[in-house]
Amino acid sequence: MKRLFAHVLGAASAVALFAPLAVSAQSFPGDKPITIVVPFAAGGPTDRVARDLAEALRKPLGGATIVIDNAAGAGSSIGTAKVANAKPDGYTLLLNHIGMSTMPALYRKLPFNVENDFTYLGLVNDVPMTLIARPSMEAKNYKELQTWIKANAGKINLGNAGLGAASHLCGLLLQDALDVRMTTVPYKGTAPAITDLIGGQIDLMCDQTTNTTPQIEGGKVKAYAVTTSKRLTTPALKDLPTLQESGLKGFEVTIWHGLYAPKGTPDAVVQRINTALKAALKDPEFISKQAGLGAVVVTDKRMEPAEHKKFVSAEIAKWGAIIKAAGEYAD
């Protein structure tokens, strides 16, 4: 009888020991605020996505307080490292874009491993790209632009918003597809790059619709094509052909955003956040806000953590080959 009592008492103690953990996971996040680290400056396209997502996540997370922490610098690696080193409890998250798949090739040394030091929570959206030119560009359509590019190889200035920026990556892919080398001109952000494009100091740029749509609508730049497999429905962009239909077979690039937590985050917390994320991605207001940025909210299996990680691994392989071939990397 004593042995049976001791066994029951031991089992009860074990339940008592682990019960707080179970309750904590089920009640996550409770009264404690969640921080979403954005590894870019406030006001940029990734920051806007993060703030819209934070608002959409609040309801499915029980009215949680969610704050945005802009930790910009070094091609997003500073903010990304901050999350990699954070306590793995679900209260510090990362929202990053395609840079998660390009940093391994762009930087010789990183203080983290993209594939091994994070818990993947799900993709958020896809952002199309547009090929634009200075307003004085002679070409009237993409076919004429491609002829102009071939004729002026070596004399073309191709702007971008800095190493690892979406515009930098799209520019690399464009040069690779056309088998033409251009002079890449990096800027400290999208705004000064587009300002010089409008002023005619550079010739071309390939950037996100979140940055280019207002300039296209205002007639400040010339737009030639989009980088998606199908034409876009956005009023200002609906008449633009895709680069694929214009002759660059297989050319497709979108800038995606994903949500991450530090490695070791409890499975129950991961499931709670992922469930909230999937609810947020169905929120009509969030979908509308993303459409206004030219972004498409993810509805496929990449919302799931395992598929998200599988997708990023494939992107690392894709962009690694392109970046290494171009020889463009940081120390």
Automatic annotation (TrEMBL):
It comes from the Bacteria. Keywords: Signal. It holds the Pfam family TctC. Residues 1-25 form the signal peptide. The keyword Signal applies. The keyword Signal applies. InterPro entries: BUG (IPR005064), Bug_dom1 (IPR042100). Belongs to the UPF0065 (bug) family. This is Tripartite tricarboxylate transporter substrate binding protein BugD.
